[in-house]
Structures are given as structure tokens and as C-alpha cells.
């Protein structure tokens, strides 16, 4: 937990920005898995963590801007709680540690909200919170998202987008735990093993780091499937395996790193060609990061480098700028170049990407690839984002485009057919925007062909 | 997945038992963690798995008893699904594998329910399902549990309580993966390590078994806290550590095993006394298992053995039957002896323990310990349940009772005071009730003092 002063200052800034009314920050409850009491690991809401710091189920908070009151609502602990979950500081004590001096029983919250002339809330994403908020605020569950407070959303996005120095320390820590996960995977990947054996070793490193996983690990020899959470394949010589995994540290900051590993000891020449092209896309994108540039421009830069490289390798023919304008790149990289990262791996995604990654006058494209770009707007010093280009050979997508004769003048489908079993390559780092450029967070993680192969002993 | 025939027979038995109307079996959706799309690992609903076998988000099923129709409602996969989550059998194909020959889009489900004269449903525990069901069935979310179908609940409990031979094969498999987790923990526990390092190694074994954890691991030097999910303590010489952890295998059957390990290489004499008493409670309880006996009686048998043992060790004075009647045992074992286990670690807890572990005429006690007993009724061949006695020294509870002079004639509080830092001991196995007695599932897991110490090399 940060000092009380940090949380007090964040809430003061929030109050100044929103101006008036009552702000409701819902905490998360335990989340049921296969029955009410068999719960997933607890994860507090990130807005609650940012403003109130307490990771504990069943509490919510109100900031009354007009009266200046800040109240945390939750039960105090009973003897049954002590028997089942152990002794712990009282809720009042935990509240004091974040500079809040008033706690009340949860049943006092609805009446507090009913008295308010205006309640500001963020779009709920937990369904139990939706049910409660619907009742308290007399809004149908289906309308809660659209009735969320735009002032509150914008104020939170403005605060959480710019990471403070003490947040960067936490994010470097998360990346360094993540680094251990990736080095472990590079060392343990071996033909004949099952993917889940490596997934287990990766998870062990996250737990050993004192936190947990920031998101479900992607570790697959079918890297061409972008969000592949199946881990039952056997690692086979000659395949590439994509490892997209990250730790959440004990302060709940996320790392999100991808590396691509040859199952055999080294890359084949064919694999090196694609790998080095993705590496070039990544490193040149990082070099281009600086305040003021649109991240959309960097996405397109990465796409352009890819199209040039794929043309040089014989997959494409023609003018690269024309291909870029028409969207040929979607075949190879049907996802965005990156996203904001912080307390959430897709930072503030609950608040809406139109506020986090876009702005008025900058709308989302519908083109394959660009339509999945979560961060497009002008970068500012203090932003932290992922840079994660990739090249994939997706047989189903190739077949579809080929059957439609799509971009037949640009695409060499007969060459593509010889890459149907290639899989994919993705390389990803987490970068802080600095006043003059960027800084890649954490200690360096093996990334060049030589560095990766050196760990494949 | 079992054969289509297995699922067809289960559904036929269900239809015969419920008799008439439409049965709605809700599948589980993805569960959001810190925003909508960052989800916990997917877990299908166990009733859905039992009758329809498909582990896939976003599908639900209807059994129309009167017309005989069985329909699975869900989206067919799109090209976007293939890009992001990979190619897979169509929903229609997956349905055929469990003997269902009709699939429809999800938006057809509400009208299907509206046409039905009677819709049978189980008590929902996922809040997104509650919101949908509330709308479809026009029942306030707060009333859904009480309006669940008692006929359906009773029919499901009757079926799922009696494990078939092919289910027992799966449950032995889950226990054998769990056995690996426990042996790993016994071998890796060492003074100076952090609890989470061992927790990580335990989880790795669960993943290597091809499934995952059946529930959040309890691994703590503060075993006196019954559901302690904190893993940040350093293992210190002289402490006992309770390891309550279990695997869910690839078919979603759970194992639930507890062992208690000395952090030092061997148990102290003081620890051996308590450990061997808990071991006696466990083994004698298992010997007493047989069809027809109430599990409540076995819980009380374990309590009686404990009281006799604790009297012999000088913690108690007086008549054991009197102590048992008055509830002295709650101080040392404030939980129940065990619970049903199967597809859920607390099997069918969503359906209500009054149907699973109790029956008409057998109501739950309010006494500390007995009030937490989830299984009390007469055992039947085919039941699988946990046997998990424990003895704990809970300083806060001792202090409370002492300050109230509670059972001052029975309890030697001055001796108890010398055990304030003892922690706790629990030993747990999973047992199938056979026609003549019981069978402990899986290969034997080290349990005696000598067996545990042999792994502490």
C-alpha cells in the first residue's frame, strides 16, 4: 500500500476534477466459480485500489464532494470471521491507513445515495454490483453502463493514465517478475513436454514474485490463434511457441510481455526471417515513441515495416502505401499494436476505450487489425503502454481471403500456402513515455535470436 | 467427455424423475475479473457438465419433458472466433457428441421459456445468469433462489449423489493428481521458504495433471485459521503447516485432501500427540463408514475420540458424553467432519445442503462445529465424501471462552495457554461408500508420522 498521503491526494484531485455531487466507487465482492462459496481468487476493482487501496471483498466507498466526506462502507469482522479467515486489522484501521476516517455498515450506503442530488459512478462490469446498483439507484441493469458519469470517467482516466514515480517503481517490479516467468519458459521449453507443464512453471514464478498472474497465460504452439488458452498440446520440434504472460505484483500492477521461442534449440532460417521482421517492427516502434505522436501512427508504422519486409520475402507484390491504405496487413497482423497498462493489463478498459485510447475527433477504424487497436490517441509523458507487433499465418483466414480473391494483385497466395503450419511470432514490451521519448520497463528480457537461443541450452 | 449414451441416460432419468414441464439448465458465462474481458479461468456449471458435458461459455440447454425435445442454445462460431480462439468443432457437432441433435441461437431461448407452462430451474449462483433469468422468467433477482424447482433439485441430487463406476475412475484420477500435489509439498516444505513458493509448486502439479485446482489452496503455518488463503508467511522451524489442496481433473472431478507437515524435519513430541489423535479420529471415522449410518453420527464419533484424547492429554476433565452433549468440542474442531464431493468440491452446494446433506426430519444444529457440518444424513453406497477431522488452537476463541468462563469445569485453560502458538492439525481423505463399508479413493498418500517424516529428508 502507498502512504495515506498518496490516496488523499488522488481523491482530492478527483474531487476538484468532478466538481460536485457524490462519487460512488464500488469495490468487488468475491466471485463465485461453480457455487457461491467456491470463489475465484479475489481481485479488488482497480479504481477502488487507486483511490482507496484496500484489497478486501464487500466494501464500497462514497466521496461526497459537496460536504467533503469520505466514507468506506463494510462490515466489521466477527468471531466467525476470525475462526475462518483469521485475525486482521479492523476495517476502521485499514481505512485510516488510506486517510479515511469514517466507516459505516453496508446497509447505510443505499440511503446515503438516495439523499444525493447527483451520484457519479463508473460503468459496472461485475454483475452482482449491477444488481445492487440497479436497486439503489433505481436504474435498470441494462441501462447502468450508459448512465455512468462521463465527468467521473474522464477524471479517472486523466489521473490513472499518467503514472507517478511510485507507480513506475511498482510497474518495473511487475515486469521484472514477468521477466523471470519468460526466462523460465525459455529454459524449460523442450520437445515432448506438454504446454501446460511450462504454463505451470510460468505461474509458479508469478506466485513466487508475491502476486499472481495479471491475465490468463497464452503459451501455445498455435500462436496464430491470438487468444489461445488451450494448453494441452505437446511441444514438437520445429514449432514456434508464443508465450504471452505477465505477473500482477503484490500492489496489483500488471506486466504484459510476449516472447516467441523455438521448441527446437534454434530457430530455422525460415523462422528467423519472420522473427527478425517482427523484432524490427517492435524495436522501430519503440524508437518512435514520444509525447505528442498518435499511437495510431506507430501502429501504421509497424504495419508498413511488416508490409515492406513481407514484400522483400516474396509474400507480397506492389506498392506498400497502397497495401497499407487498403488493409492488406490485416491478414498477417489482425490485432492492434498495443494498449495502456497499469493496475489493469488493459488499463481502465472498464471505463471505455473511447476515453482511454481515443478522444473526440479520433474514432475507431473498422479495418481488420486497426479495429482491434485499443490505444490510438496522442501519447503523453507518463503513459505506459504495450508494444506488441506480430506476424501470423492463420490458415482459415488465408483460405477465406483466397476464396474471395481478396487483394489477389498484392498477395502471393502460393507462397503463403507453404507457411500454413508456421504458426505465429509476437514480441511485446512495456514502455513508459518520457518527456523526450520512451523507456522500456524492467531489466532487459532476452529478445534477439541470439539471446533467445542462448537460453535454449 | 463420457459417451453420448451416458449423457442420454442421465437426461432420461432426470425426465422420468421430474415428470413434466420444461427443464432449464443454465451454462456459465466467462467471469470478469477486473474488467469485462479479463476473465477468470472458465468453469462450466457442474449440472450442465453432468447432463450436457460441454465445457464452453455462453450456452444453455432446455429439456422439454412433455415434447421430449432437448435443445442447446448458443452461437455458432464466426471467423473472428477462429482468429482469436482458434478453430474448433461446431456447436452442433459438440452437441451431437452428447446426444443432442438440436441447437439454436441464444435469442430463441426466452421465447421457448415463455411458451412453457412450467419452467424448472436450479438456484442460480452466477449473477449474470440471475439477471438473464429474471428477465426471461419475470421473477425479481432476489426471488430466484426461492422459486427454484424443488422437484428438479431433488431429482438432480438423487442422480449426482450416487457416483457411477466411470465417475469413480475420474475421481480416483483427481485424487491421484492431488496425491502428487501433497507429496511435492512434503518434499519442498523447508524453513526459510515462503508459503507461496510451496503453493506455486502445488499448483504446478495440478496443471501438470491436465486440469487445475478444484479450490483455492490452503497452505499455512496458521492452520488454526480454517480458510486461510494468505500465503505470505515465511516457513519457520518448529511450526506445523496445513496443506488443504486438491486438483480438478480434465473431466472436472475434484479431489480434496489435507495433510499436516512439520516445517522442521520431524514432529516434536507435543505435535505428535495432537497429530496422532487427529489421525485416530480420521482412521476410526473411515472404519465406521457404511451404508445406512448417519454421517452426523460419525462426526460425533470423531468428536468423542477427540474429547477422550484431549482429556487423556490433560486439556479436559470430566465426563466425555456430557462434554459432547454440551458442545465443548467446538473449541478444538469448530467445523464439520466432511461433505459430499464430486464435480464440485462441496458437491451440489448450489442446490442447497438441506437436500444434499440433510433431509426432512434431520435439521442442522446451531452448535459450534455441528452447525458447519454439510453432510449429516444416512449414507448410501455410491456416495463419495470427505473425512477431515482437525484439532486447532485458536487464541482468539480460547480467549473469548475463557473470558466468559465457558465450560470452566471441563476445560483446563492454563494448559491451553501453553498451546497458543501450536497452530492446528487436519487430516483429510476422500471416501466412496461401498455396499459393505468404504473405500478410500486414490493411491495411499503419506499419512502416519513415520510416512510424513520419511519425505521430509
Structure notes:
Two copies of one chain form a homodimer. Chain A has helices at residues 4-18, 46-52, 79-85, 91-97, 109-115, 127-137, 150-161, 165-188, 195-208, 269-288, 295-312, 320-326, 353-356, 395-403, 413-417, 449-454, and strands at residues 22-25, 32-35, 38-39, 60-64, 70-73, 103-104, 119-120, 212-213, 218-220, 240-245, 247-248, 257-262, 384-387, 390-392, 424-426, 429-433, 438-440. With 457 residues, chain A is of the alpha+beta class. A five-stranded mixed sheet of chain A has the order 6-5-4-1-7. In chain A, strands 9-10-12 form a three-stranded antiparallel sheet, with helices on one face. In chain A, strands 13-16-17 form a three-stranded antiparallel sheet. In chain A, strand 16 and strand 17 form a beta hairpin. The two termini of chain A are 40 Å apart. The relative contact order of chain A is 0.11. The mean pLDDT of chain A is 96. At the A-B interface, strand 2, strand 3, helix 3, helix 6 and helix 9 of A face strand 2, strand 3, helix 3, helix 6 and helix 9 of B.
Amino acid at each position: 500500500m502507498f502512504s495515506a498521503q498518496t490516496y488523499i491526494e488522488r481523491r482530492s484531485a478527483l474531487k476538484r476534477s468532478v466538481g460536485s455531487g457524490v462519487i460512488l466507487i464500488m469495490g468487488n465482492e468475491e466471485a463465485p466459480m461453480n457455487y457461491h462459496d467456491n470463489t475465484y481468487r479475489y481481485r479488488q476493482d482497480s479504481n477502488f485500489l487507486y483511490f482507496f487501496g484496500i484489497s478486501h471483498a464487500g466494501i464500497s466507498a462514497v466521496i461526497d464532494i459537496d460536504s467533503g466526506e469520505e466514507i468506506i462502507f463494510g462490515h466489521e469482522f466477527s468471531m466467525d470471521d476470525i475462526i475462518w479467515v483469521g485475525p486482521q486489522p479492523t476495517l476502521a484501521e485499514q481505512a485510516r491507513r488510506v486517510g479515511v476516517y469514517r466507516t459505516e455498515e453496508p446497509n447505510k450506503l443505499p440511503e446515503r445515495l438516495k439523499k444525493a442530488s447527483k451520484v457519479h459512478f463508473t460503468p459496472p462490469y461485475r454483475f452482482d454490483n449491477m444488481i445492487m446498483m440497479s436497486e439503489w439507484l433505481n436504474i435498470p441493469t441494462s441501462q447502468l453502463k450508459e448512465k455512468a458519469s462521463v465527468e467521473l470517467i474522464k477524471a479517472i482516466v486523466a489521473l490513472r493514465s499518467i503514472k507517478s514515480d511510485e507507480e513506475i517503481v511498482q510497474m518495473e517490479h511487475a515486469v521484472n517478475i514477468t521477466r523471470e516467468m519468460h526466462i523460465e519458459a525459455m529454459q524449460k521449453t523442450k520437445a515432448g513436454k506438454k504446454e501446460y507443464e511450462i504454463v505451470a512453471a510460468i505461474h509458479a514464478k508469478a506466485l513466487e514474485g508475491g502476486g499472481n498472474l495479471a491475465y490468463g497465460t497464452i503459451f501455445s504452439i498455435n500462436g496464430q490463434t491470438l487468444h489461445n488458452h488451450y494448453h494441452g498440446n505437446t511441444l514438437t520440434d520445429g514449432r514456434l511457441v508464443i508465450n504471452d504472460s505477465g505477473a500482477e505484483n503484490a500492489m496489483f500492477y500488471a506486466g504484459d510481455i510476449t516472447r516467441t521461442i523455438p521448441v527446437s534449440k534454434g530457430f530455422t532460417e525460415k523462422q528467423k526471417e519472420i522473427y527478425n521482421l517482427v523484432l524490427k517492427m517492435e524495436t522501430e516502434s519503440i524508437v518512435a515513441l514520444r509525447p505528442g505522436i498518435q499511437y495510431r501512427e506507430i501502429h501504421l508504422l509497424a504495419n508498413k515495416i511488416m508490409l515492406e519486409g513481407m514484400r522483400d520475402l516474396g509474400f507480397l507484390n506492389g506498392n506498400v502505401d497502397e497495401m497499407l491504405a487498403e488493409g492488406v496487413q490485416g491478414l498477417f497482423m489482425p490485432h492492434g499494436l498495443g494498449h495502456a497498462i497499469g493496475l489493469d493489463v488493459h488499463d481502465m478498459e472498464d471505463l471505455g476505450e473511447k476515453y482511454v485510447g481515443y478522444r473526440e475527433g479520433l474514432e475507431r477504424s473498422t479495418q481488420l487489425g486497426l479495429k482491434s487497436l485499443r490505444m490510438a490517441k496522442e501519447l503523453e509523458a507518463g503513459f505506459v503502454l504495450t508494444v506488441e507487433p506480430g506476424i501470423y499465418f492463420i490458415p482459415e483466414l488465408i483460405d477465406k481471403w483466397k476464396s474471395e480473391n481478396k487483394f489477389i494483385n498484392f498477395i502471393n497466395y502460393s507462397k503463403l500456402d507453404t507457411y500454413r503450419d508456421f504458426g505465429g511470432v509476437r514480441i511485446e514490451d512495456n514502455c513508459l513515455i518520457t518527456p523526450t521519448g520512451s523507456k522500456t520497463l524492467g531489466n532487459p528480457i532476452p529478445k534477439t535470436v541470439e539471446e533467445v537461443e542462448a537460453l535454449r541450452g
